[in-house]
Amino acid sequence: MSVHPPGTRWYNAVWRWHFYAGLLCVPLVLWLAATGTIYTWRPQIEAWLDRPYEHLAPHGPLASPDAEVAAALAAVPGARLHKYQLPAAPDDAVQIVVGSVGGETRVWLDPTTTRVLKVEREERRPMRLVFHLHGELLAGPAGSVLVETAACWAIVMLLTGLYLWWPRGRRGLAGVLYPRLRGGKRVFWRDLHAVSGIWVSVAALFLIVTGLPWAQAWGSYLREIRQVTGTLDGPVDWTIGGRHPGAADDPMLGDHAEHGGMTMRHAAPRPGELARVIAAVRPLHIAGPVLIAPPLAGRAGWTATSDAADRPLRSEAVIDGATGAVLATRGFAQRHWIDRLVGYGIAIHEGAFFGLANQIAGTVTALLLAALSVSGVVMWWRRRPTGSLGAPVPLRRPRFGGVLIAAIVALGLYLPMFGVTLIAVLLVERLLLRHLPGARRWLGLKAMPMQG
C-alpha cells in the first residue's frame, strides 16, 4: 500500500513541470514585463520626445507639399518618398519618411521654411528599438523564436501554477487571495508567489496569446493556415518576426509595410499630386496619424492609411493623384473577422484600446508578473539544496490518461514552439541525461520508488 496520499504523484508531477517551465522562461518573462511596460506608455513617451517639433513659431506661409518632399529627399541623397505624415496641427513639424537601399529614414521639417530639423533612421527611433527589444531581443526572426518559446512555456507555467494554487481543503482566503504577513519569510514568499499568480494569470495569459501573432513561428503558422483555408484577406497590418509579410501584394498597405528593411519601389510623385491627395484625404476624417504613400511602381493610386495605436479606429483609402478622386476606402469593420479579432487583441496588448485605464492595467499585469517571477526565484533559491538544481523530488511517474494526452497534443498543435521544444526536452532527457549519473542527480531525474 502506498504511503503517498491519493493525488500526490500528480501534484508532484505538475510541480516539476511548473518548476522547469519557470526555470526556462522566468528571465525572459522579466525582460518582456520591463520592455512591454515601457512600450505600453509609447504615446506619452513619443509626445515628450516630439515636443521640440510641435507648435513651431511661423516664419511665413506654409510651404507646398512638393517643396517639403524635395527638402526631405535632399537630406537623404538617393532616397524616394515613402510616406508623408499629415501634421496634427498647421504649426507642427512636417514628418516625411523616405526610403533608400539602407532602409527608411524619417525627416522632420519646418512647415514654412522647409528647414531640416532632424533626420533619424526609422528603425533607430527609441520606441521602435523598444519594440524590437521586446519582441525579438534585437536578434530578428531568431530572437522572435526565442521569445515565442519562452511565452509558450510561460503559458505552461501559469496553467500548472493555477493547479498548484487551487485551495484544496484550506479554510479562509488568507494565502489564497491575499498574502499572510505574520507567518515568517517562507510563508510570505510562498503567499506572494501564489497570490500574485492567481491575480495575474488571466491577464497574463491574455497578453501572451495576443502577442503570438507577432511571433515568427506562430505568426507564420497562422498565415499558412489562413492561406490553406482561404481566410487570408490581403496583407496583415502587424509585423511577423519583425517583418511585414506580403505588403507588396496589395495596394491597401498595412501600417508598417516598409519596416524590417522592406524598401518597396515607389513611383516618383508628379508635381501637384501630393497636394491634391492631401486635400482629398482631410474630409475623410481618417484617425491620425495619417500616412500618405505614393503609388507602388506599376500601380495606380496613392494610399492614405491610419497608423492609430487603437487599431479598431484604423481605415485606409486609395486616392487618384491626378484628379484627387477617392478610388476605394476600407474600414476596420470591412476586414476579415480574424484580422479584427487580432486587431482588438493587439490594441489591448499595447494598452491602446481603452485609454489610460488600459495602460494602467497592462502595467499592473507586468508588475504582478515580475513579482510572480521574482518570488518564485527567491523560493527556489531559499529551498535549493547544496549540489543540486533543487527541482521537486520526483515520485514514480503517474499514468497519463487519454484526456491529458489529448490536451497536451492540442496545446502542442496550437503552440508549435511548445510542441517542438517539449519533444526535444523529452528526447534529451530520455536519450542523454538519464544516462549521465551526475546530470541525473543534479537535475533530480531519478524517481523515488513507491513504498508499500
Polypeptide structure, described:
This protein has 452 residues and is α+β, with helices and mostly antiparallel strands. The protein has 2 domains: 8-40 and 137-211 and 357-443, no CATH class; 53-124 and 235-335, no CATH class. The protein contains 13 helices and 8 strands. Strands 4-3-2-1-5-6-7-8 form an 8-stranded antiparallel sheet, covered by helices on one side. Strand 2 and strand 3 (103-109) form a beta hairpin. Helix 4 (126-136) crosses helix 5 (140-165), helix 6 (184-211) runs antiparallel to helix 9 (337-349) and helix 6 crosses helix 10 (355-383). The protein is elongated. Residues 1-6, 247-263 and 448-452 have low confidence and may be disordered.
* Number of separate helices: 13
Mean pLDDT: 84
Largest sheet: 8 strands, antiparallel
The value of Rg in angstroms is: 27 Å
Going by helix content, strand content and strand pairing, the class is: alpha+beta
